[in-house]
Amino acid sequence: MENHKLGAAILQISTEERAVNYQWEKDADKLDKNISIICMDDIQKMKDNGWTFKTNMPLCEGMTLALHPFIHKCYIDITSAEDEIFKDKLDCLGKVSKLLGVKIFEAKAIFIEEKHRDLDASGNINYKAVKVDASYRKEEEEKYAKTYSRKESFSGEFTQMGYEKAKQLIKQYKLNDLDYIVEQRNPEDGSKLSAQEVKVQLTKELNSLTECAFSLNILKGVFTLNTNIKQTIATQKTVILETKLIF
Fold this sequence. Notes:
By secondary structure, the protein is an alpha+beta fold. The chain has helices spanning 16-21, 40-48, 81-99, 134-147, 160-172, 179-184, 204-214, 227-233, and strands spanning 10-13, 35-38, 52-54, 64-67, 74-77, 104-119, 125-129, 149-153, 195-201, 235-246.
C-alpha cells in the first residue's frame, strides 16, 4: 500500500490485482480521495506497523473498514461503526464529567431524523429525507434511548490534574459542545458552574465516514458490497445525546 494512503478514512479490502487495477476503471477518478483500496497483504503489513482492527468477524476481502475517529491507528468495521463510536463517545463523556467534578451525570440518546443517500448521473451524492411512520420513529427512539443512556453518581472530587485531563479528552474526542462547560469549571475561577444541560452530537463522525464510503458505489461491479454494507453507507442519521450535569 502506498505511504500516502496510510490513515485513509476508509479501507476497502479487495484482491491484490483489484487493489492495483481499479484505478484504470471508468470513473475511478471520481472515487473519494480518502478511500484506499487494499489487499490482505496490506492488512498484515499494517498490523506489523502497529495498526489494530476492531471487527466482529475475521478480516477478509469485501470488508469495508472505517478509521476510528478517536483511537490512534485503529480501524473498525463500517457496519458496526455506529455502536463503536457512540459507546466510545458516551464513555468519554462520563470520564470527562467525573474529571470535572460532576456529582450526577445523566445522558440519553435522542433520535432526530434519517436521510438516505443516492448518486446522480455525475456521481454527486444527494440526500433524501426518510418519511417514517409513527411506529418506526417510536421504535428508533426507544432503541437509541435504551442502548445509549447513562445515569451515574460521583463523589465530586475536582483537581487541577483532573481538569487538565478532561481538556485532553475533549480535544481527543472532538467534544466541542463541552468547551463552555470546561471554561466555566476552571479551578482558577472563583465562581464555578454548578449545573448544566447540554446536547452533544453523536453522529457527526459516523456520517462523515459513511458519506466517504458511499462513493464506492461509483464503481459498481468493481467492488462487491454486501447488503449490510450498502445499507449502512446509504444511511445518514442525526442522533444527539442530551446530558445533564450537576456539580
